[in-house]
Predict the structure.
Amino acid sequence: MRRELGTFETALTLSDAFAPLNVVVVLRLAEGPPPEALRRALDALQARHPLLRVRIEASGRGYCYEQRQVPAIPLRREEREADGAWIPEAEAELGRRLDAATGPLVRCTYLCPAGGGRCEILLTFHHAIMDAASAVNLCRELLAACANPGCAEPKPPVDAGGPLPLMPAADDMLPPAWQGFARRRRIGRFLLGLLGEEAVDRWRAKGRWHAPADPAARNRILSFQLSEDETSALVKYSRRRRLTLHSVFDAALLLAMARQLYPGESLPLRHLVFASLRPYLRPPIADNHLGSYFAMLRFTTPVGPESELFGLAGAINAQVHAAAKRGAKYAFSLTSAAAMRGLLRLGSQRMAATALSYTGAVRFDEAGPYPVLGLHAFVSNFHLGPESAAQVRLFAGRLWWDIVYLDADLDPPAARRLADEIRTLLSTEGET
């Protein structure tokens, strides 16, 4: 079975060919499954999900998924030596490319002590087959399958309907207004507007925002959580201000980065926001189908010494709302491959100062045999990518932040100061 990659899948594949672009999910468990149970569970999931059985082939000017001659999901087991042993493993996985030409587009690392106890399961995916919604659902399926001795069919809450079909690309399921000739007309108008915005942004920045692009830069990760009280206060305060949490988190990351890297300066900073396309497709795509059904939106917002969190969040909220009314998520998705080719050809322009994705609330079955203590997710960065990127989710009553930065942009103490700045912004403002 073959399927051509959609525009956004192609953009992710082009990026991966230039530098590894992986999604690394870390499940931290109070008690881990036997290795043989994990092996059977991976086999069961691979049989269920077609995108776990594909490789990527060049096809004309694009790419396609091919399901012939794809081996089993690799499983590597390592002795778990300390609570933080998963951190260097995750950093290494971010920079270790999956062989897309042979497949599969996923691998698994299991860190577990010989005598049982706390462990970590690291799942590394090619970004073209995975978004946040499907990653969380697949983790639930994996744990349910590990708990099923036979692993023939995952237990609830997983849909036990057998193997799933290979779903179409997002391009083919966009709303009618973004199909046919109307699509070309809308894209043309979008590109003209984008070129105008680019010219204005460059004039406003006047060369002041010039993040260096170091090809030798390596991925580093940093995680922190807000307490339950801090999280509750922030959520309530954001609702009172009628601001989305995504806009608040985006503002916090952007403001913290500006204070760390550009103190005292007033700059128009570019930032990336990720939006799910799943509920807007025709038909909508359920979370149990793997795939990259999301769009990467780009905005530019002035940030200066006088900026405060909720004022900045309000400006970002207005930008995102206006973009949604224009259908920008569809336009950005449909032009992503051309934009990525241009970025890679230029080879010196950074994509943005920051990038942020908010998954929302994530839950696991607390009564299962493998209680989840923590869930982390990281996406590979590279020297043309943003100066920092964050994945945020609400889990166990806390806000979990997972940040990826490049060692050419920040050293570990500076990264820790960045995290402390974000925590201070969110906890202090949430109490006002």
User: Anything to note?
Assistant: Residues 151-160 have pLDDT under 50 and may be disordered. The longest helix spans residues 180-205. The chain has eleven helices and 14 strands. The chain has two domains: 2-160, 172-361+383-430.
